[in-house]
Write a structure and sequence with these properties.
The structure holds 2 protein chains of 2 kinds.
Chain A: H1 4-19, H2 23-35, E1 40-50, E2 56-67, E3 74-82, E4 90-95, E5 102-107, E6 112-116, H3 132-136, E7 143-150, E8 154-161, E9 171-177, E10 183-189, E11 195-207, E12 210-220, E13 226-236, H4 247-251, H5 255-258
Antiparallel strand pairs in A: 1-2, 1-13, 2-3, 3-4, 4-5, 5-6, 7-8, 8-9, 9-10, 10-11, 11-12, 12-13
Chain B: H1 2-17, H2 20-31, E1 33-46, E2 56-70, E3 75-85, E4 90-105, E5 108-115, H3 135-140, E6 151-159, E7 164-170, E8 186-188, E9 193-195, E10 214-223, E11 226-236, E12 242-243, E13 249-250, E14 253-265, E15 268-278, E16 294-306, E17 309-320, H4 323-329, E18 340-352, E19 357-366, E20 371-381, E21 386-397, E22 412-420
The chains are: A alpha+beta, B mainly beta.
C-alpha cells in the first residue's frame, strides 16, 4: 500500500498535466517567463511616453537583474541615460517575495543616497504609464487567479486582488501564450468594473533560448495616454555579481550598466 | 533685462540643440567622453525692502558642463560651472567635480580630487555630514544641487562582509558658504542689529594644508533592510562658530561622534541620527566667544499619503552642553540662546501631469526659536530638455536674533528656466 499511493498520485498528476496545467502552474510559469529568464540579465530600455495631447517624452535606461532563485527574491539595478537631467541617476530594488521590497535612489549631483518607501508600487515609473510593479513584477501571491477560458493560443486568466484597498483596480484579465507562457495582453478594470488600462506585447524575440518581450505598450484608456517600451541589447546569464546590487555601485555605476 | 536676453539666447539655441543627443553620441563614439550639462537663468526678488541689500536676490546665468571618461583603469570626472552673477557683478568658474576614481583592490574604491560628498540620514538637516554646504545658494533659490559645495578630498572606501568603511581626508579645511552679510542680511551680535555688508566680520582663514586638515569616517552596514552607520569627524566647525579676541570670526576645532539607523516602518521609511559635537575650544562653556559642545538628534518618517503625494516629517534637536557656564560667561546685553533648540520639518511632494509638474513644499519650524523657513516650489518639465521653475524662500521670526528669524528681510521669490543638454 505504501508503494501504491505515490504511484497513483504520480499517475493522477500526469493525467492532470496532460489535460491542462492548473492555474497555479500557469501563473508560476508566466511569472518565470516574464521576470526570471536565466539567472541574471541586462537590457537597454527605451520608454516613449505619449500624453493625452500627443506630446512625447523619452526615457532611456539600462536595467540589470539578478535572481536569488527562480520565482524568489531578485535585485534590479537601473542606470538612467536620458533625459539628460536624470543622466547617471541610479536606482536599486531588492525585491523580496516574503516582505516589502527595499528601494534606493542615488542622486549624483548631491551625492545623495535616498531610501524610497515601497508602499507605492502602483505608481508611475519615471512618469510613464508603466508602474514600478510592471517593471519588476507583481507578487503572484497578491491576487486570486482563475482560469477563465482556454483558446487554441491562450490561457485566459482572471485575477482579483486579495487586498483590494491597496490597488486601484478591481480585477484584471491576462492572456498567456500557451507555448511561451508570456502574458501577451492584460486588461485592468477599475473599481466600477470598467476597463481603464491595457497592456499589450507588440514584439517578442528568441534570445539565448528564451522567448523575450522586446516591445510592449501600456495604455491609459481614461486619459488616452500610452507608453511604448522597447527592450534591446538583451543578454542573459552574463554572470553579474551580487555585489553590483549594493550602495557601492549605486555611487559608481558599473560598466555593465553604462555599456 | 539680462534675464530676458538669456531667455532669447536660450530659445535661439534650442534648434541647434535639437540634435544634441546625436552629437553627444558622436562625441562618445569618437573620444569615449560622456557629456551632459545645462544652461539656465534665474531671477528673484526680495518681497520686502532691506536697507542693506539690493532688491534682486538672485539674477544669474549659468552653464554647466559634465564630462565623464572611463580610462579602463579608472574613471575621470569633470563637472564645471560658468556663472555670471548680476547681483555680485562677477563672472566666475567653479569646479564642482574634478576627480579620478580607481579601484586598486576588489573591495576598495578611491576617489581623489574635487568632489561632492554626502552621508547621513537627515533631509535638509545634517548632523554627521560635515562636508561643505552652501547655505547662501540654498537661501536665494538656486537648485538644490548647490546646497552641497565641493571639497578637495581623498575618499577611500573599503567594502567588507562585516561592514563598509569610508574615510575622507580633506588636506585643507573647506568651510561652508555661510551668511556673511555680503548678499543676505544677518544678525550681527556685536552691532546687536540686522546687518548687511556693513556688518561683515573679518575672518581668520583656515587654509594651512596639514594643520587645517579634516578627517571624516563612516562605518556602515545593511542588515535585513536596516541601515546602520557610525560616524566620526575630526576637524572644525563648518561655519565660523567662534570669534577671536580681536573680533574676527574663526572656525573653532570640532570633533563629532555619531550614529544613524534607517529602516522601513509602517509602509514608509524612518530614520534616526544622533551626534555629539565636541567643541574643545569652548572650554566647557567658559569661552563666550566659541560655540559650546552639543548633543544633536533627529528622527524622521516619510511615506506616500496619496496618489503621487509623499509626506515626510522630522524632529531635530540641538542640546547645548554646559549651559550654566554659557549663561554665566555670556556677554552682558547679548540675547541668550536656549539650552534646547528644536526644529520640526515637513516635506510634501506632489507629482502631477505624468510627473512633469512637481509641486513641493519644505518647511522648517522651530517651536523654541519661534521662527520658520518655508520653501515652496513648483517645477514644470515643459519637454525632456526644458524646465521652468518658480519658488520662494520665506523666513518668518518674531525676533531678529534667532536662527531663521535673522533672515526675515531676505524673504524672496524666484523663477528659473533651464535647458538640459
Amino acid at each position: 500500500m505504501r508503494f501504491i499511493l505515490p504511484c497513483l498520485c504520480t499517475l493522477f498528476y500526469a493525467a492532470t498535466v496532460c489535460a491542462a496545467p492548473d492555474v497555479a502552474e500557469i501563473v508560476q510559469k508566466a511569472n518565470f517567463a516574464s521576470y526570471y529568464n536565466g539567472d541574471d540579465g541586462s537590457s537597454l530600455v527605451e520608454m516613449v511616453i505619449t500624453d493625452s495631447q500627443d506630446r512625447t517624452r523619452t526615457r532611456l535606461f539600462t536595467i540589470l537583474r539578478k535572481d536569488e532563485s527562480d520565482g524568489g527574491n531578485q535585485s534590479y539595478y537601473v542606470y538612467f541615460k536620458r533625459p539628460s537631467d536624470i543622466r547617471k541617476t541610479t536606482f536599486l530594488v531588492h525585491k523580496h517575495i516574503q516582505s516589502e521590497d527595499d528601494r534606493w535612489l542615488y542622486l549624483p549631483g548631491l551625492d545623495l543616497l535616498k531610501r524610497l518607501a515601497a508602499s507605492d508600487k502602483r505608481t508611475s515609473f519615471m512618469g510613464s504609464h508603466f508602474f514600478y510593479e510592471d517593471v519588476s513584477g507583481r507578487n503572484i501571491s497578491e491576487d486570486l487567479h482563475t482560469l477563465e477560458e482556454e483558446t487554441a493560443e491562450y490561457y485566459i486568466l482572471n485575477n482579483i486582488p486579495k487586498k483590494p484597498d491597496e490597488v486601484e483596480f478591481s480585477a484584471y484579465t491576462i492572456w498567456i501564450d500557451k507555448t511561451t507562457y508570456l502574458p501577451m495582453k492584460a486588461e485592468y478594470l477599475d473599481k466600477s468594473g470598467k476597463g481603464y488600462r491595457t497592456m499589450e506585447v507588440l514584439n517578442t524575440a528568441e534570445i539565448q533560448g528564451f522567448t523575450t518581450v522586446t516591445k510592449s505598450k501600456i495604455s491609459d484608456l481614461n486619459s488616452g495616454g500610452s507608453t511604448i517600451t522597447t527592450f534591446s541589447e538583451i543578454k542573459y546569464n552574463i554572470g553579474l555579481d551580487q555585489s553590483l546590487f549594493t550602495e557601492r555601485y549605486l555611487r559608481r555605476p558599473p560598466r555593465e550598466a553604462r555599456q | 533685462m539680462k534675464t530676458l536676453l538669456t531667455l532669447c539666447l536660450l530659445t535661439l539655441a534650442q534648434p541647434a540643440m535639437g540634435n544634441m543627443n546625436d552629437l553627444k553620441d558622436q562625441l562618445y563614439d569618437a573620444t569615449g567622453l560622456d557629456m551632459v550639462g545645462f544652461m539656465e537663468t534665474r531671477y528673484g526678488l526680495r518681497t520686502q525692502n532691506d536697507p542693506h541689500q539690493k532688491d534682486e536676490s538672485i539674477a544669474e546665468m549659468r552653464l554647466q558642463l559634465d564630462l565623464f571618461k572611463d580610462l579602463q583603469w579608472g574613471v575621470l570626472k569633470f563637472k564645471g560651472d560658468l556663472l555670471h552673477d548680476e547681483v555680485m557683478h562677477r563672472t566666475t568658474g567653479e569646479f564642482r567635480e574634478l576627480n579620478l576614481r580607481v579601484s586598486p583592490l576588489d573591495n576598495m574604491d578611491i576617489k581623489l580630487g574635487q568632489q561632492i560628498l554626502t552621508w547621513g540620514t537627515g533631509d535638509m538637516l545634517f548632523i554627521n555630514d560635515l562636508f561643505p554646504k552652501d547655505w547662501q545658494s540654498f537661501f536665494i533659490g538656486r537648485d538644490d544641487e548647490y546646497l552641497k559645495a565641493p571639497a578637495n578630498a581623498l575618499k577611500t572606501s573599503l567594502f567588507y562582509d562585516m561592514a563598509n568603511i569610508d574615510l575622507v581626508y580633506t588636506p585643507t579645511f573647506q568651510g561652508s558658504e555661510y551668511i556673511s552679510g555680503e548678499r543676505l542680511s544677518f544678525w550681527n551680535p556685536v552691532l546687536g542689529d540686522l546687518a548687511g555688508a556693513n556688518g561683515k566680520f573679518d575672518l581668520e582663514e583656515r587654509n594651512s594644508t596639514g594643520r587645517d586638515s579634516e578627517y571624516a569616517m563612516r562605518v556602515s552596514k545593511n542588515k535585513d533592510s536596516m541601515e546602520f552607520a557610525l560616524y566620526g569627524y575630526y576637524g572644525f566647525w563648518k561655519t565660523p562658530e567662534g570669534m577671536t579676541g580681536d573680533g574676527k570670526l574663526r572656525y573653532p576645532r570640532l570633533s563629532v561622534y555619531g550614529g544613524s539607523i534607517r529602516t522601513p516602518l509602517w509602509g514608509g521609511i524612518s530614520h534616526m541620527e544622533t551626534g555629539y559635537y565636541d567643541s574643545s575650544q569652548a572650554d566647557n562653556g567658559n569661552d563666550p566667544l566659541t560655540r559650546n559642545d552639543e548633543v544633536r538628534f533627529l528622527a524622521g518618517f516619510e511615506r506616500e499619503i496619496g496618489q503621487e503625494l509623499t509626506a515626510s516629517i522630522q524632529y531635530y534637536l540641538e542640546w547645548m552642553m554646559d549651559y550654566d557656564n554659557y549663561e554665566a560667561s555670556l556677554i552682558p546685553g547679548s540675547p541668550p540662546k536656549d539650552e534646547y533648540r528644536s526644529v520640526l520639518t515637513l516635506r510634501l511632494t506632489k507629482l502631477l501631469m505624468n510627473q512633469n509638474l512637481i509641486l513641493s513644499f519644505f518647511g522648517y519650524y522651530s517651536p523654541t526659536d519661534e521662527d520658520a523657513y518655508l520653501r515652496p516650489k513648483a517645477q514644470y518639465k515643459m519637454t525632456d530638455s526644458w524646465l521652468l521653475e518658480a519658488g520662494g524662500n520665506i523666513f518668518i521670526g518674531s525676533e531678529d536674533h534667532t536662527f531663521f528669524g535673522q533672515f526675515s528681510k531676505n524673504t524672496n521669490v524666484y523663477m528659473g528656466l533651464r535647458f538640459n543638454y
